[in-house]
Task: inverse folding
């Protein structure tokens, strides 16, 4: 689905953000990019999304991405404060020129999917952080993209909200058979969400390790408290420390 | 609480007026130095016909200049947001226009624009006074659009027109409204200053009434004209504040306390 080969990114000013990054993502796979702040994981995601151009190397989507073929959720909910939830979710459809009636129907469908059907007329400032993030996720899903890119979307949320959203995300992605690239700095979150974790180190950003999580895609109740989960987290913490050293 | 916010300034003004009236009577201040509030009120009643005509004329020039300043400032700011080259070429000229004291260029404007039509010169000067805050704030506002939203629009392949109308213009709205509150007052100031400089009997706005009564030592009438002038300024400010509340109340942070 996504192939990245020997990718490098040097920012104007000479900072090397990424060097020699290669990775693949298969259809329907959930892959996490895990690393400390400043390791270039967000840059890698933005390059994959086509928002910034790489300095060297190759990024290839198969089949090639169409407009609206990719949903992105940023660190901030980035909602338009002057528009209510429903109109925020409609945004990608409005850009594509979809008619008002269909826009409305699909936005409501997505809001229902993220559990906000009763908040369609609410303005962002009246919503909690977690609800705003749900609106942002609904907006990313409204074009029914095969791919979802998430850039530390839950970093600013409290632990309970975060776990709830993790569960919801797994359910939504499983249902829609989405391919997901998930950027995070939380080892636990990466273990809980992904099938594969790519660990990164900084200066310049590079992938140093790959860990496969062998657990059912639909996480069993209590997976968060299982010895298996704890073992993975421990293994990743050790690897992260080794990478940073 | 709300009643106190309206009543307390009124009470203070009434007490100040009472004190003024009492002191003028007590010390027998001559009317050509400082007339009592009662004398000002009488002057207002005697001359209200000519004063209201003058007030209307000043108001008309201010409003026309203000509308043109908003239209011009917004259009130019939008142009700037679309082309950095145009902005670099034109913005310094706008700054020069702004920093040159309006009184200093007024005689030139009167000669160039006002010989056959004095009102045109007044309009131009009021426009110059009101134009820059709109241009400057609107330029800033168009540029202050959320970068995440701009990225999002790029991701979905939005056109420049969509970015402008759906992201940049709404983002700039609070900036524009705040500039309008400044420019509304400035257009009135500009109109009055212009009239003072133009100084001919061909345009008889409130500034003309003030000069005329000053020359004739009719200080009470002068105060009456001044009173009307500040009422105009207050009215303009309140109208624009109301517009701001109306447009931003549902979403903007500055309106958070007015219920959600």
Result:
């Amino acid at each position: 689905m996504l192939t990245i080969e020997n990718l490098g990114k040097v920012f104007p000013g000479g900072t090397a953000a990424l060097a020699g990054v290669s990775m693949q993502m298969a259809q329907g796979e959930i892959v996490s990019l895990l690393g400390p702040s400043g390791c270039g994981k967000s840059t890698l995601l933005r390059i994959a999304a086509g928002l910034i151009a790489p300095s060297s190397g190759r990024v290839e989507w198969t089949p090639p991405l169409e407009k609206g073929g990719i949903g992105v959720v940023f660190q901030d909910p980035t909602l338009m404060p002057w528009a209510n939830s429903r109109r925020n979710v409609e945004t990608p459809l409005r850009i594509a020129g979809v008619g008002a009636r269909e826009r409305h129907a699909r936005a409501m469908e997505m809001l229902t999917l993220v559990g906000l059907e009763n908040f369609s007329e609410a303005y962002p400032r009246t919503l909690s952080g977690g609800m705003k993030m749900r609106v942002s996720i609904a907006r990313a899903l409204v074009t029914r993209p095969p791919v979802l890119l998430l850039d530390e979307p839950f970093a600013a949320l409290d632990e309970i909200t975060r776990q709830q959203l993790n569960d919801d995300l797994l359910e939504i992605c499983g249902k829609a058979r989405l391919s997901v690239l998930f950027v995070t700095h939380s080892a636990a979150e990466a273990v809980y969400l992904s099938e594969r974790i790519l660990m990164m180190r900084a200066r310049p950003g590079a992938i140093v390790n790959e860990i496969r999580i062998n657990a059912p895609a639909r996480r069993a109740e209590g997976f968060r408290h299982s010895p298996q989960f704890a073992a993975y987290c421990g293994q990743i913490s050790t690897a992260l420390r080794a990478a940073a050293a | 609480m709300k009643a106190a916010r309206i009543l307390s300034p009124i009470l203070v003004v009434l007490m100040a007026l009472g004190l003024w009236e009492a002191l003028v009577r007590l010390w027998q201040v001559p009317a050509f130095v400082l007339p009592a509030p009662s004398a000002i009120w009488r002057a207002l009643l005697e001359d209200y016909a000519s004063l209201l005509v003058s007030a209307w004329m000043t108001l008309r020039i201010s409003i026309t200049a203000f509308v043109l300043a908003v239209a011009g400032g917004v259009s130019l700011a939008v142009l700037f947001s679309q082309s950095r080259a145009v902005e670099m070429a034109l913005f310094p000229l706008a700054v020069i226009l702004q920093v040159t004291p309006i009184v200093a260029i007024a005689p030139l404007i009167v000669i160039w624009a006002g010989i056959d039509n004095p009102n045109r010169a007044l309009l131009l000067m009021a426009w110059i006074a009101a134009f820059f805050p709109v241009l400057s704030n609107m330029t800033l506002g168009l540029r202050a659009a959320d970068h995440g939203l701009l990225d999002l629009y790029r991701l979905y392949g939005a056109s420049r027109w969509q970015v402008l109308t759906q992201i940049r213009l709404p983002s700039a709205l609070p900036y524009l409204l705040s500039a309008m509150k400044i420019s509304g007052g400035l257009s009135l100031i500009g109109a009055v200053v212009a009239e003072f400089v133009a100084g001919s009997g061909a345009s008889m706005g409130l500034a003309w009434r003030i000069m005329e009564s000053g020359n004739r030592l009719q200080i009470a009438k002068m105060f009456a004209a001044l009173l009307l002038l500040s009422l105009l300024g207050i009215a303009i400010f309140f109208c624009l504040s109301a517009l701001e509340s109306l447009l931003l109340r549902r979403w903007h942070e500055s309106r958070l306390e007015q219920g959600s």
Observations:
- Chain B touches chain A at residues 146, 148-149, 151-158, 162, 166-167, 170, 173, 250-253, 256, 260 (CB under 8 Å).
